């Protein structure tokens, strides 16, 4: 019995390590898979401020990372599933494109 419990602990550690590796790989894929550029530009006199360039200077690919974080958070809620998430992203993208934000 002692050998079995020891192997169980090793299996749990291996499972946790594999989960951490999977989350890391998915997190690294976010910038290459998700594109959400902000097209807004503020103009004051002769000065133009491109919002996307400013956000990229703070943290490159910040908008896609925030988008994925919000979707993961919403998927944790009871009444929000993957189908609703996909539909919400489609509707949000259409609205933001029509408003000229993206």
With strands numbered from the N-terminus, the spatial order across the biggest sheet is 1-2
Mean pLDDT: 85
Unreliable spans: none
Sheet bearing the most strands, described?
2 strands, antiparallel
Number of strands: 2
| Helicity, as a percent range | over 70%
Listing every helix as H and every strand as E from the N terminus to the C terminus, the arrangement reads: HEEHHH
In terms of structural class, how would the helical and strand content be classed?
mainly alpha
**Assembly classification:** single chain
Report the portion of residues in β strands: 5-15%
Shape: elongated
Q: Number of domains in the coordinates?
A: 2
Question: Could you give the distance between the termini?
Answer: 60 Å
How would you portray this structure in words?
- Helices cover 71% and strands 8% of the residues.
- It has 102 residues and is mainly alpha-helical.
- It has two domains: 1-33; 35-102, no CATH class.
- Strands 1-2 form a two-stranded antiparallel sheet.
- A hairpin with a 2-residue loop joins strand 1 and strand 2.
- The longest helix has 32 residues, at 2-33.
- The mean pLDDT is 85.
